[in-house]
Amino acid sequence: MAVARLPLIESHPSWRVAQLVGVLATVTLLVAFLVAPTPSLHLLWDMVIPLLPAVFLVNPMLWRNVCPLASLNDLAGHRRESPTLALSVLVPAWAVGIVLLMVLVPARHFLFNTHGLPMFVTVTAVALLALAGGFVVSRRGGFCNSICPVLPVEKLYGQAPLLHVGSARCSDCNKCATVGCPDLAGRKSAVQSVVAGGRRSWVWTPFGLFAAAFPGFIIGYFTTADGAVAHAASVYGHVALWSAASLSVAIGLMVVSRARSAVGLLLLGAASLLAYYWFAAPRLVAAFGGGPRVGEIVRAMALLGIGAWAVRGWRRVRA
Ligand code: SF4
């Protein structure tokens, strides 16, 4: 099999140290979910997770190079040789990841934001899934490039990275996935994902539908409060309504304007980022002890950063 070299390999030992720290931090967090759920859930959901979209905006490789689930997937996957994942497997696998994202994120409101045990069980199950995926498909084709629920977000927000960061895991590429690997395709992985969908119009592919629904999905999430498990149906109903509204508006606009996938996905990525930080910025600041005024300043800075991202993406799309 021909081996394609990646443009820049960040094989510096510090990445290995960061990967080890990521795995150890995850194990520590798993224990903390059981022995001290309130502070550990606050740390994860209010202080760490809201920073991730900003990291993806700078470059998703900053996360992919250290993600603890990727480390587990790679640990097993690097020892395995298997054929490249064909599109007929890859596209449905991406759809599974999108469904997982759509199911797991609203569940925060009635389960994961406030209960340590379900977090322990779910994170452990997903970690084992990532490890098991490495025994089935080589490299990271069995999880990171296929069913990972974070992958669609990495692709959507990785369309105009502000910094260049190479892969710290694949010093060579055996093409574990035919297309759409952010390590290999970088900012083009989003467009590759809709081209791989094989429909005449990109918006009707799994990734196109995800991108169209995502701004509304985010608004739906942030306009719902935490509650008991009995609250689950109303949470999913609320998020589904917002997602459907977003889907209808975005598809209408894309079909009427006949926007190319590169343009449409960039606009939908920017809309999602704007929606996210409009709600998340003040909450993030509050979690670190800042007041409402600081929250407004950080929100404005986030909007500026997203603007710079969108302009950078727009220049590349037009080039
Ligand atoms: S497709 Fe991506 S994850 Fe798979 S071997 Fe190539 S660079 Fe690594």
- The total tally of domains equals 1
Distance between the termini: 33 Å
What would the average pLDDT be, to the nearest integer?
A: 93
Calculate Rg over CA atoms.
19 Å
Instruction: Identify every distinct bound molecule in the structure, by name, code or SMILES.
Output: iron/sulfur cluster
Strand content bin: under 5%
Helix content: 55-70%
Give the arrangement of secondary structure elements.
Blueprint: H1 13-35, H2 37-48, H3 52-58, H4 61-64, H5 68-77, H6 87-112, H7 116-136, H8 151-157, H9 182-185, H10 189-195, H11 206-222, H12 232-257, H13 261-287, H14 292-318
Helix pairs in contact: 1-2, 1-5, 1-7, 5-7, 6-11, 6-12, 11-12, 11-13, 13-14
The chain binds iron/sulfur cluster.
Iron/sulfur cluster binds at residues 139-141, 145, 167, 170, 173-177, 181, 183-184.
